[in-house]
From TrEMBL:
One of its GO terms (molecular function) is endo-alpha-N-acetylgalactosaminidase activity. Keywords: Carbohydrate metabolism, Glycosidase, Hydrolase. It is an enzyme of class 3 (hydrolase). InterPro entries: 6-hairpin_glycosidase_sf, 6hp_glycosidase-like_sf, Glyco_hydro_100. This is Alkaline/neutral invertase. It catalyses: Hydrolysis of terminal non-reducing beta-D-fructofuranoside residues in beta-D-fructofuranosides. The keyword Hydrolase applies.
Length: 573
């Protein structure tokens, strides 16, 4: 639905993003605009493996950068319009999409160099990238480790650049770590738990490399990373899509690894909701920030990992049961999320008028949310058109905060319906100053202040208002925004955000995060040369140049789970 098909006759050349390789000849004589495409074209884009960037790509995989002379403003508008039929945009679109807009920016080469400096080797093989290469910082803490979640944008950058080996090595190495016995004090963790991070120790005397890993037993707060296993599965699919190499995912140990991760989440117990219950700080926001319970980030990653696993698990004796449970869970999870986590103007108005203390199946206000608990800021923040998945839903509690990662992953995994995806993008545009400001992108909005900050964070000096996890701006999120923009047919939003990032990232030394309402200040305690800030930028650039990369990190709508939910007024024009 969102991509261009090229048919016959044209010559082109292109380079790898790090400027090292040039590739072949092609012919083009006509293109068909996005509006002429159907779902089938989208599914082909998302389904197609990309062996690597150097192989001869088929016509319909070609990048916009290869079409500079033919892609006019008109066809670009068509492209945008696919998921936003109402016309739109407070954001300036480029007058034309010419070749220059895809010429490598001077900081691209610098970014590749900086990324390569972070490579970690185990017995001569690259197995990951450290979290930050910040020599100036007095305290290394654990930023010299390979974090599973931090490695994802690095991995995508390498895949997109035709270097899948490091990703394969990483997947196999972390799989081995999963097999370790994991204990916090005297308490054993589930078999499927994946590490938050690991470190390679080099013994120059014995010429031996060994690994230490952290499953939460050393982490600040002692929380196990629920997101690691999900990212691992998502990355395994990205590798498979990108290379076309099915043999890795089909290996018995990878099949077992997936099953073990999901067994942790699919067990039946006291749960009355299909969402996954978890502790505060078990994902990217790894400190106490009121993200316990059913945080959107985990639910969206859970949904995506389930769908990725479904596409890779074998229907054999061991896989069959797992597949069945995944299917049932997906069905219930998508219904729950789309119904209860979704907020737009109409829904907000409904909650505002909720009755409370309703008993029995006929209750409208199922979780007994008290309208007085709706925070004031949301009434100004909610645009007439637009919406998002809120931060958390549990009995008598709705966390209305907007979280970037969860909403972008909801778009990429198609947890969001096409209408909801459009609405999420509409909201980002409508609240550009709040969410993007001067540096993309707010991790969460708004910040928690004063008394609430004391209670919620436990007086955390790192998470003061508009800093770090508490309303800070994280450049790494640029790749997620870009992917979501491409999937919803709105690349100009990503372009705008990338332009902003480019004015400062290199100059500022690739900070981990920025502070302030507009993200103007380099974060109070931000690391410099934070690897995922560098890799996130590169991935965003490469995706915008060649949107067919999106296939490795996005899933099309699951037709079987098409929603029965009525459109609310903010989705209409
Ligand atoms: C911080 C972030 C976490 C990240 C880690 C390494 O703890 O909150 O998400 O994985 O740094 O960069």
């Amino acid at each position: 639905m969102f991509w261009l098909t090229i048919r016959s006759g044209f010559t082109f050349q292109t380079k790898k993003m790090d400027g090292t390789k040039v590739m072949g000849l092609r012919n083009v004589s006509s293109i068909c605009s996005l509006s002429e495409m159907d779902d089938h074209d989208l599914s082909r884009l998302l389904d197609k493996p990309r062996l690597n960037i150097e192989r001869q790509r088929s016509f319909d995989e070609r990048s916009l950068s290869e079409l500079p002379m033919i892609l006019t403003r008109g066809s670009y508008d068509n492209y945008e319009g696919m998921h936003s039929p109402c016309g739109r945009s407070g954001i300036d679109t480029p007058a034309s999409w010419d070749r220059n807009s895809f010429d490598p920016h001077p900081i691209v080469a610098e970014a590749w160099e900086a990324l390569r400096r972070t490579l970690v080797y185990f017995r001569g093989q690259p197995v990951g990238t450290i979290a930050a290469y910040d020599h100036a910082s007095e305290e290394v803490l654990n930023y010299d480790q390979v974090f599973v979640r931090d490695f994802v944008p690095s991995a995508l950058a390498f895949l997109m650049n035709g270097e899948p080996e490091i990703v394969k090595n990483f997947l196999l190495k972390t799989l081995q770590l999963q097999g370790w016995e994991k204990k916090v004090d005297r308490f054993k963790l589930g078999e499927g738990a994946m590490p938050a991070s690991f470190k390679v120790l080099h013994d120059p005397v014995r010429k031996l490399d060994t690994i230490i890993a952290d499953f939460g037993e050393s982490a600040i707060g002692r929380v196990a990373p629920v997101d690691s296993g999900f990212w691992w599965i998502i990355l395994l699919r990205a590798y498979t899509k990108s290379t076309g190499d099915l043999s890795l995912a089909e290996r018995p140990e990878c099949q077992k690894g997936m099953r073990l991760i999901l067994t942790l989440c699919l067990a039946e117990g006291f749960d009355t909701f299909p969402t996954l219950l978890c502790a505060d700080g078990c994902s990217m926001i790894d400190r106490r920030m009121d993200v316990y319970g059913y945080p959107i980030e985990i639910q969206a990653l859970f949904y995506m990992a389930l769908r990725c696993a479904l596409s890779m698990l074998k229907q054999d004796a061991e896989g069959k049961d797992c597949i069945e449970r995944i299917e049932k869970r997906l069905h219930a999870l998508s219904y729950h999320m789309r119904s209860y986590f979704w907020l737009d103007f109409q829904q907000l108005n409904d909650i505002y008028r909720y009755k409370t203390e309703e008993y029995s199946h006929t209750a409208v206000n199922k979780f007994n949310v008290i309208p007085d608990s709706i925070p004031d800021w949301i009434f100004d923040f909610m645009p007439t058109r637009g919406g998002y998945f809120i931060g958390n839903v549990s009995p008598a509690r709705m966390d209305f905060r907007w979280f970037c990662l969860g909403n972008c992953i909801a778009i990429l995994s198609s947890l969001a319906t096409p209408e909801q995806s459009v609405a999420i993008m509409d909201l980002i545009e409508a609240r550009w100053d709040e969410l993007v400001g001067e540096m993309p992108l707010k991790i969460a909005y708004p910040a928690i202040e004063k008394h609430e900050w004391r209670i919620v964070t436990g007086c955390d000096p790192k998470n003061t208002r508009w800093s770090y996890h508490n309303g800070g701006s994280w450049p790494v999120l640029l790749w997620l925004l870009t992917a979501a923009c491409i999937k919803t047919g709105r690349p100009q939003i990503a372009r705008q955000a990338i332009d902003l990032a480019e004015t400062r990232l290199l100059k500022d030394g690739w900070p981990e995060y920025y502070d302030g309402k507009l993200g103007r200040f380099i974060g109070k305690q931000a690391r410099k040369y934070q690897t995922w800030s560098i890799a996130g930028y590169l991935v965003a650039k490469m995706m915008l140049e060649d949107p067919s990369h999106l296939g490795m990190i996005a899933l099309e709508e699951d037709k079987q789970r098409k929603p029965m939910i009525k459109r609310s007024s903010s989705w209409n024009c």
